[in-house]
Amino acid sequence: MATSDDLDLDFGTLDLRSVEPGEFARIVRNTPARRTAEVMAGPHRRRVLDELFRRMETLFKPAEAGDRTALVRWRITGAGNTLDTYETYIADGRCVVTPHGTDRPARLTLTMAAPELLRLASGNASGPALFLTRKLRMQGDLRLAGGLLSYFDIPRV
Please, where are the H alpha helices in 2-149? Predict the structure, then answer.
């Protein structure tokens, strides 16, 4: 398997499903912000986002969420008014991802640019830091937002 020194955010050739979460976190950490922004504005954006949200289902930690029920809407912005919406529904010890927005009421809506989402989901940025620098906008249950990342097995790099 390739190491993070051998990999770049070249999603034209990188099989995202074969990259372990810790390795992906190292790739994101070692890739300059400008390059991450370029990749997330390019043709592989949706494939990267789809894989990131697919992993949320598998990295979900039911014990951390307890008996909580919540619909979280993720609004991922990009260049040229690009907007991708995903929803994560947490209930009954599971996290189910919908790869588009619905008309269901969200308990929490998070809005951020794609590079910030990559950093957040890979453990390379903190939600409070992104919020304080206005790179993350939240609407709804802020208590849920404060504990949301603990519901997932996010790598520590």
Answer: 21-30, 33-40, 45-59, 62-65, 114-121, 127-132, 142-148
